[in-house]
Write a structure and sequence with these properties.
The chain is α/β, with parallel strands linked by helices. The chain has 6 helices and 8 strands; from the N terminus they run βββαβαβαβαβαβα. The longest helix has 23 residues, at about 90-115. The chain is globular.
Length: about 240
């Protein structure tokens, strides 16, 4: 899906595993390399973990110390497809809370291995709304970062925002031709403004001219560079469980 960063860039061989029972895909770390950081990648509405396997492999080949955890949302009886939460209606809050609990449990598992500060939650579209929530409402030790791709910041975050998240790095990516998300690229700009008002000190916004409701090679490369800067490398970090960067 994504082009190599350069013709001469060495690529590692990430291990990968498919857990059909748990509907999980694990990609990385590289064989023989220490696992020192984790990225939880949340797909969008109607998609699955398999839809983000290629981007995760692209990142993992260049980040040998990182494990990418790709869960699949449950099938919603209301929506008729995989969905992290129902849109509107009486079940929206309950389905949203159920996903928060399930994903929170995955984060706790990774936290026991690498520490909260070495975990990034990334999400596309509906998954991005959850990534925002998981990263911004967490009390106590902050997460390592949030990547919000072609998504929206729910109003509920205003009342649930945790002051502990003010130092959480956030990368927002959105395309100017995205007509699937209310507000489009302007909505992404407003989300950044809201985060700044919350007191979040490190918010980066990238707008992609002509990009619709999708991901492009250029965006994946930008996320790669952001992850390299945000997460510890296997050569320079031995973060203990529960550590805070």
């Amino acid at each position: 899906m994504a082009a190599a960063t350069s013709a001469s860039e060495p690529l590692c061989e990430p291990a990968h595993q498919v857990d059909k029972a748990q509907k999980l895909i694990h990609v990385g770390p590289a064989k023989g390399r220490q696992h020192t950081a984790t990225v939880l990648m949340l797909h969008g509405f109607g998609d699955s973990a398999a839809g983000w396997f290629e981007p995760a492999m692209f990142w993992a080949q260049r980040l040998p110390h990182v494990r990418f955890v790709l869960p699949t949302a449950p099938v919603s009886n209301t929506m008729g497809t995989t969905s992290w939460f129902d849109f509107g209606g009486g079940d929206m809050a309950s389905t949203f809370d159920a996903s928060v609990r399930a994903l929170g449990a995955l984060i706790q598992q990774e936290e026991a291995v690498v520490g909260a500060g070495c975990i990034v939650v990334a999400g596309f579209s509906q998954g991005g709304a959850l990534a925002y929530h998981l990263g911004l409402t967490r009390a106590g030790q902050r997460l390592g970062g949030v990547v919000a791709m072609s998504t929206f910041l729910l109003p509920e975050v205003d009342s649930k925002f945790s002051a502990d998240a003010r130092e959480t790095p956030i990368l927002i990516c959105h395309g100017t031709a995205d007509d699937r998300i209310p507000g489009g690229a302007d909505g992404a700009r407003r989300a950044r403004e809201r985060l700044v008002k919350f007191g979040v000190s490190n918010v980066e916004l990238k707008i992609y001219e002509g990009m619709g409701h999708s991901a492009t090679d250029g965006e994946l490369l930008d996320i790669l560079q952001w992850l390299r800067h945000t997460l510890p490398s296997d050569a320079s970090s031995s973060a203990a469980p529960g550590s805070r960067l």
